[in-house]
Amino acid sequence: MSAFAHRKEAPRMLFPEPPSPKKVAQTVFRPANVAAVVAAVVAPIPELDADALLEGLTEDQRIAVAHVDGPLLVLAGPGSGKTRVITRRVARLVALGIPAWQILALTFTNKAAGEMKHRVESMIPIDVPGRRGLVVSTFHAFCAMFLRRHAVDCGVDPDFVIYDADDQRSAMKSAIVEAGLDTKNFQ
Fold this sequence. Notes:
Elements (H helix, E strand, L loop, with lengths): L20 H7 L3 H9 L19 H8 L15 H14 L8 E4 L2 H14 L11 E4 H11 L1 H4 L10 H14 L9
Parallel strand pairs: 1-2
Helix pairs in contact: 3-4, 4-5
């Protein structure tokens, strides 16, 4: 079984109360947005050699880097080359003429996101057309940004706060004290 899983479908977005189809159509599929996506296909970038980005990879890695049509989920163990695969795929997509603002690269840790961003930036010269707008982020940071951007459509306050574990404990302890309960057994 391959260490690199290929996924043809985009993951579903879940909202507390799904917006109506009409609301989604009005906000996400505005004519200006659709026109921008259609107009965004650019010519391949001669400064970047898309085929060179496939060199030095295993067969499974080459398949993942060469994948162009739709989203791709890369699942593999530590040290297997996930970051190399994702960064080369991003650079290859830009080399093939896909604008960076249409590419989303997500990972779990800030360290991995920073490393991915650094590697992609080192592969794609700053003056290359189509480089602007690339999003490399953690799942958590991207989802928070996306939810804030579309908060009104989702029925959420855009100024929501995300508590870490310590903040959650502190809030719970405050609520217990405020309710007049004993915090002795609270951990």
